[in-house]
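Notes, Module 5: Reading structure tokens.

Key idea: the token line is not a picture. It is a compressed description, and you learn to read it the same way you learned to read a sequence, by spotting repeated patterns. We will look at two proteins. The first is printed below with its tokens.
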Amino acid sequence: MKIPPLHPWPQSVPEATRLQEELRAQLLPGRLRGMPRTVAGAIVDFDKGDDRLYTAVVVVDSSSFEVVEVATRTTVATFPYLPGYLSFREIPPLVDAFSGLTHAPDLVVVNRHGHAHPRRIGMACHLGLWLQVPVLGVCPQLLMGEPPRVPKEPGSSSPLVDENNGELVGMAVRTRLGAPPVYVSVGRGMTLPEAAALTLALCRGRRMPEPLRLAQREAARLRGSVRNLALDPEIAALVRNKGARS
């Protein structure tokens, strides 16, 4: 997948804020062109207090949910973990992983917010501008506002509104009986009703969309393999010896 560079990466929060304001102007309303044939779940996992990032992109066939392609990366974060600025920490390894795919997916779903962001440019929006494909944000936690009440029946939803100005920024969707709702917002290339409908179609009775669940499993596997390498005494000895010779 060829991904032309969108911008240089800022090194400070004020620079990141200015860039978000500039990018927001590039977001245009859009609609899906039919049901996507391939859907990519994209996850960046990490351990608290550790700058290593474990990125996984899993592409599935939307009709069978069979895995079509997988790309993973292990990198070191170059931007701090700050709510509202996760794009600058997680998109660089995501773009690197997506560049390893053979074909661009028809839709990407991430466990981050899109329009439901204080500056209306969450990671789902930002990633959509980088990839130039439709991106859906489905997040288990809120970034802004108070959680709306959602009926208990699966498929129920309630609007997610910015309390400061009354703007509709997303939907709280009950995807599974007995589970908390998820928070759905548009990243790029779809309407909010389309985003809510896609979320329900991709969840298959689970709380989170299946492509995200599969990507989370790959990221956890990658993280576990790195941990095992670090604990392996032979690998540790090789690393120590290499460091002593350098």
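Here is the second protein, with the sequence above and the tokens below, as before.
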Amino acid sequence: MKIVFVGPTLPDAQVLAAQDIVIRPPAIQGDLLRAVRSGASAIGIIDGNFEYVAPIWHKEILHALSHGIKVYGAASMGALRAAECADFGMIGVGRIFSDYAAGMLDDDADVALLHGPAELGYLPLTVPLVNVLATLKHLQQTAAITADAAATLARAARAIFYKERTWSEIIRRARLSSTIDRQCLMTTLKSGAVDQKRLDALELLGLMAHADDHRGERPTGWTFQATSMWKAVANAADEAG
């Protein structure tokens, strides 16, 4: 069984995923453990909750890997965890993962955004920094904006808390030259927007669609340690069902 945890990054994942992939909501602590126990052969992590609940624990990923389960990560919290657990065999996918792995990104909040509930299709209310940077790079490469404007907008975006980062707020804080038509710039930014998180998530779904639906060999370079903290989390997962 292949399982992917995803939400606001790819709201239409259920429609886009291969038939043998089970789509589950953004992961929280304990979800990967339950996936392992339910017989998962491959696990994809795209989105995870973190603000009001315990986030995906690295130990859960190591536990899954120790059972020969392929664990993929991309786009959002999955990219973060993949960069942190790559040395143990987690498979990172996409540009965002690569940027974290290379140290070009280093803040967890760079992939975060404010969004509506699942019932409203995770309606995005802010723009994640990784999408801002991808958009500015694209617009600069196509000569839609200058290099100076792109750099100024990027600096402004980095300084904004993720729950307040919108294109209008980025433009306001950038304090660009008065000769620049702000409404025209807003149109350019929105029409040329690059949703890098979505692109990376789609790449993960594509890889998992072609992954073998069976567990592989257990890793030989390291051994999973069932610490007292791990046992406490495992017991809590049992109680939660």
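Summary for the second protein:
- The first helix runs from residue 13 to 16.
- The chain has a mean pLDDT of 93.
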